[in-house]
Design a protein that fits this description.
globular, alpha+beta, 25% helix, 13 strands
């Protein structure tokens, strides 16, 4: 079972690499909750995710399911243009430094993903059809005595979960992870609290890669909420389109007006 998850981890890293060849639409729904877990307000943001000179950039295209105003749309285009100008004018030394930093970040991610196989005891509990494809259902419980090697892996013992592995492609098709106690996450120390859940579903794209279809973070409303984490998030992804090597993003100043 551990070897299976090492294979899945390698495929996940390859998916991340291939995802940079795609543009797609991301829609995020944020539910702000009060102290009793009741939804106070809902906000949606829809963005087009682009790859510009090796950098992933989001361009907001809708807010609360309505197109942006002309003023806000112009601001988004200006943001994209600034990224393009920065990359086009980047010196060789700055480019090498940026690429080295990006590779360092990817190496840390690789270490984290590969440690998942060692962090849990896995149990095969059955099979199920996910989007018409057969998948193994596997439960993962934190392994006593696990010693994390990377900083990010320190959070793994604080989660348990269930995963669905596609039988043919040996890819992660779905995941449902539960937080066992309070844990800080990321640079800004976002806090997940006991009972909170992280859910992911992936889909096969273009017969070459598995990419996110839906991601959700859910607060356990049975527990008291705190200011550090009082939002349910749902993100969906669609319209994956391969961004060929011959394609490029064009800024306003490069578009020729029709005669």
């Amino acid at each position: 079972m551990q070897q299976l998850f090492r294979v899945v981890a390698d495929k996940d890293l390859e998916n991340d690499k291939l995802q940079r060849n795609y543009t797609y639409i991301e829609r995020q729904v944020s539910h702000s909750l009060d102290g009793k877990g009741t939804v106070k307000s809902t906000e949606t943001k829809t963005s087009e995710v682009l790859e510009i000179y090796g950098e992933q950039v989001e361009r907001l295209i809708e807010k609360n399911d309505k197109p942006l105003s002309a003023k806000d749309a112009a601001k988004e285009e200006e943001k994209i243009q600034k990224v393009m100008d920065k990359r086009k004018n980047e010196s060789d030394s700055d480019r090498r430094k940026r690429e080295e930093n990006e590779e360092k970040d990817r190496e840390e991610e690789r270490k984290f993903v590969k440690e998942v196989a060692d962090a849990y005891n896995f149990t095969l509990v059955g099979t199920e059809q996910i989007s018409g494809r057969a998948a193994w259902i596997i439960d993962a419980e934190p392994r006593p005595g696990f010693q994390p090697k990377s900083k990010e892996a320190k959070m793994l013992p604080h989660f348990r979960g269930r995963v669905w592995i596609d039988k043919v492609d040996l890819q992660l098709a779905k995941m449902d992870a539960e937080c066992l106690d309070t844990v800080s996450w990321g640079l800004f120390l976002a806090r997940f609290h006991k009972g909170s859940r992280f859910m992911l579903e992936q889909t096969r794209v273009n017969d070459e890669v598995w990419l996110p279809k839906e991601v959700a973070v859910k607060v356990d409303v049975r527990l008291a909420l705190v200011k550090s984490f009082n939002v349910d998030l749902d993100q969906t992804y669609r319209d994956y389109k391969k961004f060929g090597a011959s394609s490029r993003i064009v800024g306003f100043g490069e578009v020729q007006q029709p005669k």
